[in-house]
Amino acid sequence: MYMFSRLTVRMNSPYFTSAALDSSATETMGKSTINKDGIRRLRSRMAQGLRSEDDPPKVKAEVQEKSISDDPTHAHNPADCVKSTSYNTTSKMKEEPDQALLSPRKRGRGHLKVEYETEGVGLKREPYDWRTQLSFIREMRSKRDAPVDQMGAEKCYDTQGLPEVRRYQVLISLMLSSQTKDQVTAGAMQRLREHGLSVDGILKMDDETLGKLIYPVGFWRTKVKYIKQATALIQQEFGGDIPNTVEGLIRLPGVGPKMAHLAMDIAWNQVSGIGVDTHVHRISNRLGWTKKETKTPEETRRALEEWLPRDLWSEINWLLVGFGQQVCLPVGPLCSVCLNQHTCPSAHRSSPSKKIKSSPAKPNNKLASPTALVKEEPEDTSAQRVSHQRRKNTGPQLNQQDLSASRQETPSLARNRRKGRAGAPLSGQT
């Protein structure tokens, strides 16, 4: 109440009314009519001073009166209205500095954008022009005539068998394919299927018979042991069917991450990861699809899964395996026939001689050189024939001359021979 009374007394002051200003101005003009310009300046200064000093209370009074007249519930408590108006004005005064401080933050939005971009690059780093390289590999693999296309794990199981039998045969083919060519694996799988390749059949089979059937796969003795142990674990813990998770498959002896991901894709039709074997590991490093050179297939798998789209995880294995079997060989890759020879950072490094064959200028020289050799060979042979013929022709003449000379020298030679015979010492004389 005290604050409200003080505010009303101040509002009734003559300084708030325009009449007071006019009266004071007229009195001043009546007293001093000499310097009207000075009076006007003084009057304007007084008006500006009064406005700067008394405008906030005037605003508060207007807000107060309006709030009291509009809201009848606050008519009996004017002090609360004063507090609320003072709180509103202070809050507005506090908001103005905040808005002023927001302007430098708006200027700093560029820094936030840069941080976001760097985080995005760090989270997903795609190799340069990898889509073009992949399209070229698809083009080179369009015939599907690699060994993996005819004798891979997808072609070795019995399509007429039960689902659990088919899945078990897929797992066995993957276990046999480690460090073994597809031709050898396909032959071993065919012999096993003829003897009944199933969980019960392998458990009943002795180690010696199993070894003879899978020979000559790589490390066949070790694989006999692993197949027996894995089959027993499948029968005991998984009910005669292979596990349907990567963790369960890796628990089996002789089964690694590559086999587990491929088994999930082929047997269970679930893409859980990229199956990286020696071909995928080698080609990915040659193409520069990893941030740095990886040492193991498992490191390559993690590096590829960081940026490669998930819908390509199933396709990338058979693409690169067949490509590695036909073009990007472990030793002596055929860079001259590869469509990626101009974008692959490792092109012609492993096989420097292939670069000469693929260069545009050298093939012309090579094509010209054999023809030159072919043209020169007849010339050489003809010259040799001519010289040989001449020797044949001159040979008899020389022989006749020698014979005639020998005939002419025959009497003298005969006399010398006779003299030599006559003057020759007898055996025993010195």
Automatic annotation (TrEMBL):
Basic and acidic residues composition bias: residue spans: 51-74
Cofactor(s), names only, from the UniProt record: [4Fe-4S] cluster
Origin: domain of life: Eukaryota
Residue ranges with Polar residues bias: 394-413
Keyword annotations of the record: 4Fe-4S, DNA damage, DNA repair, Glycosidase, Hydrolase, Iron, Iron-sulfur, Lyase, Metal-binding, Mitochondrion, Nucleus, Transit peptide
Pfam families reported for this sequence: HHH, HhH-GPD
Family the entry assigns: Belongs to the Nth/MutY family.
Protein name according to UniProt: Endonuclease III-like protein 1
Organism: Danio rerio (Zebrafish)
High-level lineage: Eukaryota, Metazoa, Chordata, Craniata, Vertebrata
Gene for this chain: nthl1
